[in-house]
Design the sequence.
């Protein structure tokens, strides 16, 4: 299901929100334009919506006004602001150990769009031009990162990665963020540099075969690396054929049979990937590798280097696990908290008769959109205040949020343990940091929108994931009320 509001709600920096330092800002001009362009939304694929908006944004035909072009671009800027935020939070999460910054420090580099300034591109599709109230254009003095993300994305390619993943990747590659991270000593290492610097603590986390491979690599490659450094060679070069052949001989003596140097290279790269995983969960993930010859950064070796169609498979699997586990944790949290409330009501002398009516009350609130004042007589309650005390949607949401966060934390820890990515018992500071990030994740994905719905008043729209799951649960569990 598409979240169409992403095209008219932009994530931007907020100095007023001390907790997260960002906010979701409704861009009414983008919402109006979007609804005018797309009369039928449900059957439109995401890619087609984005391509249509981009066609408007990049149209140099005089029949399309610059204002309309800029607002179409604004819709896309709103959309990409979400994965930009997620990328900053992911970088924060990966580098969380023993660091001196948080994702809030990264936001000014990439989440610098105000959601108000109208921007189009020049004829060369390179420079940002600001559109004035009179429809004229002047060179933008403060380029927005969101515009650069949209500008560089190939909308007309059916084989390119999604716009979400493109924005996510561009954020992680942002030069200002990389420069910021370099100030804290986070390096960009090649496979051979990773293998060369591998330490005893890392070897303990690997299989016996992988440990032997690294030790043999050290005995040959490190030996020659010292000589290379004396000659002024700073970059770790690929192991040559002679080195690989020598490694094969050493491995054979340890009863590890690898037939060719090609197979050996493949296994060494696989071990390097395991070391990157170790770095990820130690919060030292190299984002890219540095090429001294070209003086530029290239994608990490564990990202696909023959195609940029998607982020690497392992990362997608983790993201899929998070999304699946999040919904499951939400369902479990809803079921547990509602069960707790019904049990508590049943034991209450004052409110015991409302225990069997509790789920029906939720149905009236979330399925039929009735207010508490109208629900009260339906359930035989004396007043709106009594309905609020018994149903209390706000407190229910708060308790479900706490349970969802805890259950998702448990699922993540189980995954980490099954993959050998953490040791027990966990350090309190580590657990506290992880919990903080999970709370931010569940708030962004579920509870910010759900809380806003409850506060909206009479014209509330109960379409959040939380409301959807409550409707499903209440319909499944609702029973006829005994008079």
Sequence:
């Amino acid at each position: 299901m598409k979240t169409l509001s992403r095209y008219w709600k932009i994530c931007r920096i907020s100095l007023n929100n001390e907790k997260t330092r960002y906010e979701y800002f409704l861009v009414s001009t983008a919402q109006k334009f979007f609804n005018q362009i797309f009369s039928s939304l449900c059957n439109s694929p995401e890619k087609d919506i984005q391509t249509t908006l981009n066609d408007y944004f990049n149209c140099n035909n005089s029949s399309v006004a610059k204002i309309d072009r800029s607002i179409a671009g604004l819709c896309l800027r709103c959309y990409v602001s979400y994965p930009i935020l997620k990328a900053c939070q992911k970088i924060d999460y990966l580098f969380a150990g023993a660091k001196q910054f948080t994702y809030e420090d990264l936001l000014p580099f990439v989440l610098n769009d105000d959601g108000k300034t109208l921007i189009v591109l020049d004829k060369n599709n390179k420079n940002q031009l600001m559109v004035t109230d009179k429809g004229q254009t002047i060179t933008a003095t403060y380029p927005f990162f969101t515009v650069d993300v949209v500008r560089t994305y190939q909308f007309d390619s059916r084989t390119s990665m999604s716009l979400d993943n493109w924005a996510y990747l561009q954020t992680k590659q942002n030069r200002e963020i990389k420069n910021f991270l370099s100030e804290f000593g986070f390096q960009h290492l090649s496979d051979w540099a990773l293998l060369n610097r591998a330490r005893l603590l890392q070897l303990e986390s690997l299989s016996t075969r992988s440990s032997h491979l690294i030790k043999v690599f050290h005995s040959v490659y490190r030996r020659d690396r010292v000589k290379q450094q004396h000659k002024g060679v700073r970059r770790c070069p690929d192991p040559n054929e002679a080195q690989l052949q020598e490694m094969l001989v050493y491995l054979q003596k340890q009863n590890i049979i690898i037939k060719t140097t090609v197979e050996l290279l493949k296994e060494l790269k696989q071990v390097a990937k395991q070391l990157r995983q170790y770095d990820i969960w130690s919060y030292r993930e190299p984002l890219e590798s540095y090429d001294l010859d070209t003086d530029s950064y290239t994608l990490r070796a564990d990202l696909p280097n023959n195609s940029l169609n998607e982020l690497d498979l392992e990362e997608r699997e983790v993201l899929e696990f998070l999304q699946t586990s999040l919904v499951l944790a939400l369902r479990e949290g809803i079921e547990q908290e509602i069960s707790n409330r019904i049990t508590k009501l049943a034991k209450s002398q004052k409110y015991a008769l409302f225990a069997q009516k509790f789920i029906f009350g939720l149905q009236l609130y979330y399925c039929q959109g009735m207010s508490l004042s109208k629900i009260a007589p339906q359930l035989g309650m004396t007043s709106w205040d009594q309905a609020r005390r018994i149903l209390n949607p706000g407190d229910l949401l708060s308790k479900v949020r706490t349970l969802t966060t805890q259950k998702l934390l448990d699922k993540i820890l189980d995954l980490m343990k099954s993959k050998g990515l953490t040791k027990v018992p966990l350090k309190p500071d580590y657990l506290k940091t992880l919990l903080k990030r999970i709370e931010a994740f569940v708030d962004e994905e579920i509870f910010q929108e759900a809380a806003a719905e409850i506060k909206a008043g009479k014209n509330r729209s109960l379409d959040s994931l939380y409301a959807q799951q409550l409707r499903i649960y209440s319909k499944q569990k609702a029973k006829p009320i005994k008079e």
